[in-house]
Design brief:
The protein is an alpha+beta fold. The chain has 8 helices and 5 strands; from the N terminus they run ααααααβββββαα. Helices cover about 60% and strands about 20% of the residues. α2 packs antiparallel against α3 and α6 runs parallel beside α8.
Length: about 200
């Protein structure tokens, strides 16, 4: 009986090791470095108008982030009960709000260098965390920026960014769940709210 138990345990440990090895750590890190390089050189440090920066950020955002995956996560249980039209409208509004918001906030990284510190495993076999930090200067501690990366075959997408231990995806999920719970129009009201915020930014 003991031998059978050890054999079964070994089998599941083998499966676990195979799953954890599914995502290529080097390629995932190189992907994030490329995203950062493009963001800094073509957007943050570029001598172009703010409108052009927003347009470039939108291109980068749509190309390198998995918006469908993130949208499902941040809407949580409300994703399952939403219509296809509501899902499409939410992702479109969520995308535009983030493009407008982060194209401005990333100016804080002008002239700053990202330093990478390896990876950390995720509970999901097709995901891992790429660790980085940014020297903010003026005697400040480096800002920790962790990228959650998901691998699909040979391609990679960012599915969350964790800045100073604050997950953007989890923060949005909590905020939106609280909003929908109070809003008479539910998801439709959330979509209108995101669209209004985009106009204000």
């Amino acid at each position: 009986m003991k031998k059978i138990f050890i054999a079964v345990l070994s089998f599941f440990m083998l499966l676990s090791n195979v799953s954890n090895a599914a995502i290529d750590e080097i390629k995932a890190t190189d992907f994030v470095k490329k995203v950062v390089k493009e963001g800094i050189e073509e957007i943050i440090d570029s001598n172009v108008s703010q409108k052009e920066k927003v347009d470039r950020f939108r291109t980068l955002f749509n190309k390198d982030l998995d918006l469908d995956f993130i949208g499902k996560f941040v809407l949580g249980r409300y994703w399952r009960t939403s219509t296809p039209e509501q899902r499409d409208a939410f992702i479109a509004a969520y995308r535009e709000l983030n493009v407008k918001t982060w194209s401005g906030r990333f100016d804080d990284f002008t002239g700053k260098d990202f330093v990478f510190h390896g990876t950390t495993p995720s509970n999901n076999a097709d995901q891992l965390f790429v660790n980085s930090s940014v020297d903010m200067g003026q005697g400040q501690q480096p800002a920790k920026v962790i990228w959650r990366v998901k691998q699909n075959d040979d391609s990679f997408k960012v599915v969350d960014i964790i800045i100073e231990n604050v997950s953007l995806a989890i923060t949005a999920r909590n905020e939106y769940a609280a909003f929908i719970k109070k809003a008479p129009g539910g998801v439709d009201d959330l979509i209108k709210n995101l669209q209004a915020k985009t106009k204000d930014n």
